[in-house]
Write a structure and sequence with these properties.
Helices cover about 35% and strands about 20% of the residues. By secondary structure, it is an alpha+beta fold. The protein is globular. The relative contact order is 0.19.
């Protein structure tokens, strides 16, 4: 009995129940604040509450998040939520529901599959050799659907003067910061006018 109660409490704390997951669709984009060491710098530099993003996959009645977090992989939704700060997350979806047809969703999976197991890009480069979270989502939508979720910026366009950001940049690049490297941030995708919010806990 005690074990059942503990499981129930954990389930509630994670903040995701069956009713929630049933409303999520393939292709939905999910945002959270990661507790990683670089998260604070990302949020300061991009003026964002969120530092991590993934895309929803539904398979065999189960819900997953496809994400670039170490290697690019599928993470069960409940595990993904549990990894975020306070288990808070927001889900967004394309405003035009006609875009995500069975054919276009298959195309998204085809594109996404090419990134499977790619290592995480801690230097935020724009090549496909290594991938960071928002880059993965942006490239899937761009290459599969021809849609740009957010405007690409250059690294120099962000707030790089804060001490926390400066320290992280120095750790990663030394004195050779690639200021002209194309970058898409989680906030850049979050702010896309093509998306609407469908859930937030």
């Amino acid at each position: 009995m005690k074990k059942i109660i503990l499981l129930f409490v954990a389930f509630v704390l994670i903040g995701c129940n069956d009713k929630d997951t049933k409303r999520f669709q393939n292709g939905d984009i999910i945002f959270q604040d990661s507790p990683s060491t670089q998260s604070k710098a990302i949020k300061i530099a991009t003026n964002s509450r969120y530092s991590h993003v993934g895309v929803i996959y539904r398979e065999d009645g189960k819900v997953y998040v496809y994400e670039a977090v170490g290697p690019v992989l599928l993470t069960p939704l409940k595990d993904w939520i549990a990894h975020g700060v306070d288990h808070h997350y927001v889900v967004k979806r394309l405003k035009n529901p006609d875009i995500l047809t069975p054919i276009t969703l298959r195309n998204m999976r085809r594109v996404a599959k090419k990134f499977a197991n790619r290592p995480y890009d801690a230097l935020f480069g724009w090549s496909d050799d290594r991938v960071y979270c928002s880059e993965l989502i942006w490239k899937i939508y761009k290459r599969a659907l021809g849609i740009e979720l957010g405007k690409l910026k250059k690294l120099r366009d962000f707030n790089l003067n804060h001490p926390v950001v400066k320290q992280k940049l120095y750790e990663r690049y030394g004195k050779n910061v690639p200021l002209d490297e194309p970058v898409i941030s989680p906030q850049g995708i979050f702010d896309s006018t093509l998306l609407k919010e469908v859930y937030s806990n």
